[in-house]
Amino acid sequence: MLRYSTLQEPSHLHKIRPAFNFLLVAAAISAGPVVVGMKKFATATFITLLGFCISGLSLQVVQAQHTHGVLSPSVTFPQDDAVLRDAPRMITMSFRVDVRLLKLALYTDAGQFIDIGFIYDHNKMDHNFVTPIPGELPEADYYVAEWSVVDERQRFLRGEFLFSFGPGAVPPSETIEASYGSTDKENLPDTGAYAQPANN
Predict the structure, then answer these.
(1) Spatial distance between the Cα atoms of 97 and 151, rounded to a whole number of angstroms
(2) CATH for the 74-182 domain, from 3.40.50.2020, 2.60.40.1220, 3.30.479.30, 3.40.50.670
């Protein structure tokens, strides 16, 4: 249930993509008139460009999936959607590769920011991060830990995990699902009553 956001394409692909695009278009234009007529040339050019677009999109999807798997945390504490007996005293994250932790922020379910004293250290590249939680956490139905990382190749990923604790606590996913259901009912418009037409 870990949630992730969009990925940045590696910078070296941004540099070569325009040149690659230009070469394909130039090749299609130069080869077209020799092999086929104008109609077939237009069709061949369109197919070439379409194929390039599809291949480029497929490449981005594969890269995104690969980066997503490499940079996503293998272990977090608390685990996503966990219900703890007591309030956690720390937040831990373990990654498969060394990354730079850009952000770690904690919020209540209502969006209240909880200062856990995280300070970004641009010199620290590691695959294990431990952040103590000072003081007591404010009361909430659940808590949201938001994070973002970047690796040595400047690939970026961000996400969040949710947890709750204490007597009577339930998994955050159940609270969210229940709140959506109750919100839908509360937002139903009041159509009011309509008078019956008078009989003449």
Answers:
(1) 8
(2) 2.60.40.1220
Model confidence band, residue 62 (pLDDT cutoffs 50, 70, 90): very low
Which residues touch 8 (CB under 8 Å, ≥6 apart)? 154, 155, 156
Parallel, antiparallel or unpaired: strands 143-150 and 90-108: antiparallel
Peptide bond into 78 cis (omega under 30): yes
For the chain, which residues make up each domain, given as ranges? 3-71, 74-182
With 0-12 / 13-18 / 19 or more C-beta atoms within 10 angstroms meaning exposed / middle / buried, residue 15 is exposed
- For residue 67, how far is the Cα from the chain centroid? 12
Q: 132: part of which helix (H) or strand (E)?
A: strand 126-132
154 burial level (CB within 10 Å; 0-12, 13-18, 19+): exposed
Q: What radius of gyration do the chain's Cα atoms show?
A: 26
pLDDT value at 11 more than 90: no
Q: What is the DSSP string of 85-131?
A: SS--SEEEEEEEEEEEEEEEEEEETT--EE-------TT--EEEEEE
Instruction: Give tens-digit pLDDT for 112-150.
Output: 999 999 999 999 999 999 999 999 999 999 999 999 999
The rounded distance, in Å, linking the Cα atoms of 188 and 190 is 7
